[in-house]
Write a structure and sequence with these properties.
Chain A: This is Proteasome subunit beta. Chain A is of the alpha+beta class and 266 residues long. Chain A has one domain: Aminohydrolase, N-terminal nucleophile (Ntn) domain (Glutamine Phosphoribosylpyrophosphate, subunit 1, domain 1, 4-Layer Sandwich). Helix content of chain A is 26%, strand content 25%. Chain B is built from four helices and 13 strands. Chain B has a single domain, classed as 4-Layer Sandwich (Glutamine Phosphoribosylpyrophosphate, subunit 1, domain 1). Chain B is globular. With 205 residues, chain C is of the alpha+beta class. Chain C has a single domain, classed as 4-Layer Sandwich (Glutamine Phosphoribosylpyrophosphate, subunit 1, domain 1). The chains are: A alpha+beta (266), B alpha+beta (250), C alpha+beta (205). Chains in contact: A-B, B-C.
Chain lengths: 266, 250, 205
Amino acid sequence: MDHHPTNWGRPRDDRVDPYGTFPIHARPRPAKDVFADGVQRTQQPIVTGTSVIGLKYSGGVMLAADNLASYGSLARYKDVQRLHPVGTSTVVGAGGDMSDFQHLQHMLDSLVTEEFTYDDGNKLGPTEIYEYLSRVMYGRRSKMDPLWNALVVGGVKPNGESFLGYVDLLGTTYQSPTIATGFGAYIAQPLLRNAVDERPDPLSEEEAVKVIQQCMKALFYRDARSLNKYQIAKVTSEGVTISDPLEAPTVWGFAEGIRGYGAQTQ
Amino acid sequence: MSAQERRFNPYTENGGTILAIAGQDFTVIAGDTRQSEGYNIQTRYAPKVFRLTDKAVLAVNGFAADGNMFVQKVQQRLEWYQHAHNKEMPLRAIARLIQTMLYAKRFFPYYVYNILGGIEDDGSGAVYSFDPVGSYEREACRAAGAAQSLVQPFLDNQIYFKNQLPPSGGAHPKHLPLKEVLSLVIDSFTGATERHIEVGDGLEIYIVTASKRPNADLEAIANLKQVPGGFIGGEDGEKIYVVRRELKKD
Amino acid sequence: MSIMEYNGGSVVAMAGKDCVAIASDLRLGNQALTIATNFEKVFPVTERIMLGMAGLATDVLTLRDRFRFRVNMYTIKEEREIEPETFAHLVSSTLYERRFGPYFIEPVIAGLGKGTNKPFIASTDVIGCINFAKDFVVAGTATDKLFGVAESLWEPDLEPEDLFETISQTLMNAVDRDAFSGWGAVVHIITPEKVITRHLKARMD
């Protein structure tokens, strides 16, 4: 992430140095303004969402994402829902470019509507949505016109099994008992795996909520593009529920005495 | 970092290693199940080895999205072939099909190394290996992927008996028995897991046996499962088995 | 072009039961062109320590002489033979002296401890970060291949002749898959009694 004052409010360039690892003098930046010749393709994300996390638990799947859409380092939109229900047994969570995500939401809604109009009793489950998204994303990357997102698909299959999958802008896919995108891969994934791995039985719903909350708090503490306002989506055989925005209890008293954290001016 | 224009890179590498060894009347095709990007392990179970027909198995390694798409396209072409000809495509024809499909994308390649293993029409075990744009050859064994450089010289030594003298008056065996081949596959992957960070988590070994092969030696193998298929050849036909083993997860 | 691949060449050392082995290929190249096929990269340090160096050939020769000088100085000052572990640290500090303008070699050290006959092997990177290993160490343009083969062939407590076979097979099969190494090989087995040196008949292509 680029925290340098000269770059405040500018669109971020996630293709280069996403975590601000360069010294100031060597900081990479795009050669020209992103809007210079009118945008034809998403060559870089503009308004972005950060991590999405997800895990399987007994009887379902849980996803979480915060409500922030950033414009570079500017916290631009603070009430954006990044978890999107699809049909009755799937949720898609998205990080990356929010306009591309809205486009995907439209595509998915149209798909569900079209499926509904057939009235043949068939419903799209998480595997179908996952497969559909992977084809769309891979197709767009092959046209060199990607949808700049990392997506997490969670749901419950018709046979009652839970499903958790990942699709990104390259068309890369995988399924796993725990998934975390973006910065969450570094901060949340270890916590999620720690909670799930080496356990003979799946987590209970209460345990799952607890670890998700722990992850979102850790992400808020350490991801500069995150917001302490997030939602949790649960998918069970009963259907999809997406919570109202939640807040993690945080403690900042320790920062008072630390130079660089607190209010010192010199 | 200069101010030169950057563009979207449609490729990435997802690590992992694959390997195939041909026997007299069987072929073994194996791959680890880790999928990674950079230092991140994305999942500990993402298959890289796929059943194509009752006598052909394909292993793909490189850019996972291309690999999965390529396998699906090959499987679709094989299904079409079966509908048109009412038989399964012979192995050598699948090999040529793969070459054509890879070369068709010569100027925007599938970033994938393919190894095709199975049973030839004459009943012999066969391995075909490909580069991303379709160059291919039939071989007795081949390793590809992240740990190719670790595994291939070991296979040269143990399969081709390179740098080993034959027993006086004798010759090196042309083919090894299944039991020894499986041991070599497992040793190759445990060795690669030890020294390569992108290899590990799980090992998936496919065994394709020729029609009418007495498969008594398969009974000793732990965790062996038959892969359901078309069974076009009936009870006596070619069969595919899979063995799953754990590899170190660190 | 990487300076580490300019001349090519590989070295490997392995520990056995009361013995160690160290071996190198014989190629000296100028990138893809082979210049000589008698360029040994392993040198005696004492009666029971040997040093192998892979990397830039001119630095191999410079450092061979430099280490001979430093070991001689050590012997005179201390009035005793240097121990393998001490020598490893000598190598390390010599390389670290050039931290910001390094010699382009990766050394491999093999020896037996005085009195104890304890096998010792170690390697370092170009600036002297030591890797003490119990099993085997490798260096050079065939590093990956050497690791792959050695990891599968090596086993603990090999007798001198078995260790010779293991290190020879490891080296030959690894360098046969490396364009910058090969063209013959030399193996040294250090036992408490003597050092056995053998030139291998290897592929010359």
